[in-house]
Write a sequence for this structure.
């Protein structure tokens, strides 16, 4: 199986370093989920606002939203 390693903060593109810092501050560390997208800085920059809108708004609690994507990852054989 192919494994895509996360991009560590020190190797992140300059354009996403502030985003790395923001995410690390919010989560207490840089989640691999986002760090893997560091390979495509433009994708990361566009995904983070989308993710915030999905996870932050609506009538479903964020923990249930997270459970849904964790279960989806498990069913698809993805490591989280």
């Amino acid at each position: 199986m192919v494994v895509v390693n996360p991009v560590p903060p020190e190797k992140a593109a300059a354009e996403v370093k502030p985003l790395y810092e923001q995410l690390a501050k919010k989560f207490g560390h840089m989640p691999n989920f986002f760090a893997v997208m560091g390979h495509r800085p433009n994708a990361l920059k566009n995904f983070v606002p989308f993710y915030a809108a999905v996870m932050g708004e609506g009538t479903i609690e964020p923990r249930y939203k997270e459970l849904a994507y964790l279960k989806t990852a498990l069913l698809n054989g993805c490591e989280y």
